[in-house]
Recover the amino acids of this structure.
């Protein structure tokens, strides 16, 4: 009797030691990245809670400043797995580093957080980091999973795809090429939730709900390809052989991929230029309209960026002649076409507001020559210059 009791006590001690050993094997270390942003810091706290909810023993530790995420994840030893979260170069992107001690693999996933002001940004980062660990543990053998606590093993098993019946796979083979098998990992729900034990394999498979953007989240900043329309206005000076005439200009621009854009520019005849001679005088009104293609190098990267343009258009000159006796007054319109070559700089003042300074060179097909009683008083000039300074609003 005494020997039986001694044997039972020894078995109980061995079971306690075995349970303690299993508990050590499922310890997960979460590394707190130094100097992390608010989203990553909140995501780390949420991640610890998610892992505890599925049965892991979670221990947190502070990472070393200036150490890469991979080194922070690989550093701690003796843990079942180590997870480190940190922000990447861009604030709206985070990297989740996982060193899986069970499968001896290191995994990394870059998570695009979108708008950092979104209410679910930290929650999504935490859930996706835990999913990455879950997928990596699918490679554990059946014997290795049996050594884990039941809740953890079931959490891993829920991520496995449901088995496909042999008859269904054979019938589908001629119609559809085989696809690579991927782990079905639920997104956007509690990681502690498990499929019901009963029912068909399809019922036990985890659902994959779509991520829904919060309605209260502020709109994201528009990317370059989203700003398709630009309206620009400012001051232009049409300069040629008849002198410089200031006036306003208007421009409409439509953005194209790779920094290109289509633009239409109008310089209306607002002010007139007067030329005098002994036999009389002439009043000039000049209008220029051009359309063409422009290229801006790095408008989303550099605050100050270069712009080049090439186009074609028309030049319209209205001449009102006032003659002294015995000559008579005369009115004449002059219309010609030409090419325009331009270059300048853009300065991004605000995300949707840009200051523009450009110079166009107009090469007219025909050069208008102005005469009064046979005496030449001026000509437009080939080329004519059109410097401009204005503001552009992008939509």
């Amino acid at each position: 009797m005494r020997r039986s009791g001694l044997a039972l006590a020894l078995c109980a001690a061995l079971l306690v030691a075995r349970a303690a050993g299993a508990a050590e094997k499922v310890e997960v270390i979460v590394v707190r990245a130094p100097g992390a942003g608010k989203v990553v810091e909140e995501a780390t706290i949420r991640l610890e809670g998610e892992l505890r909810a599925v049965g892991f023993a979670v221990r947190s530790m502070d990472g070393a400043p200036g150490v890469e995420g991979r080194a922070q994840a690989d550093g701690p030893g003796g843990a079942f797995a180590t997870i480190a979260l940190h922000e990447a170069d861009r604030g709206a992107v985070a990297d989740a580093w996982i060193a899986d001690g069970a499968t001896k693999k290191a995994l990394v996933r870059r998570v695009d957080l979108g708008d950092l002001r979104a209410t679910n940004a930290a929650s999504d980062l935490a859930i996706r980091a835990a999913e990455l660990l879950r997928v990596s543990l699918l490679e554990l053998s059946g014997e290795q999973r049996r050594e884990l606590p039941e809740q953890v093993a079931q959490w891993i098993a829920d991520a496995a795809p449901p088995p496909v019946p042999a008859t269904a796979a054979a019938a589908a083979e001629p119609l559809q090429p085989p696809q690579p098998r991927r782990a079905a990992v639920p997104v956007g729900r509690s990681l502690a939730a498990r499929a019901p034990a009963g029912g068909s394999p399809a019922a036990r498979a985890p659902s994959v709900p779509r991520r829904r953007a919060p309605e209260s989240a502020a709109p994201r900043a528009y990317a370059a390809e989203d700003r398709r329309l630009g309206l620009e206005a400012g001051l232009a000076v049409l300069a040629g052989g008849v002198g410089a005439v200031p006036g306003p200009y208007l421009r409409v621009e439509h953005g194209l991929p790779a920094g290109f854009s289509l633009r239409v520019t109008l310089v209306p005849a607002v002010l007139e230029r007067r030329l005098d001679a002994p036999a009389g005088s002439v009043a000039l009104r000049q209008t220029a309209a051009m359309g063409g293609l422009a290229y801006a190098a790095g408008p989303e990267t550099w605050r100050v960026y270069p712009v080049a343009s090439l186009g074609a258009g028309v030049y319209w000159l209205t001449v009102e002649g006032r003659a002294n006796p015995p000559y008579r007054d005369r009115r004449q319109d002059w219309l010609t076409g030409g090419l325009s070559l331009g270059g300048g700089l853009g300065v991004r003042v605000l995300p949707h507001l840009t200051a523009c300074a450009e110079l166009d060179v107009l090469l007219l097909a025909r050069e208008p020559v102005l005469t009064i009683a046979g005496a030449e008083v001026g000509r437009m000039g080939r080329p004519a210059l059109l410097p401009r300074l204005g503001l552009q609003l992008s939509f």
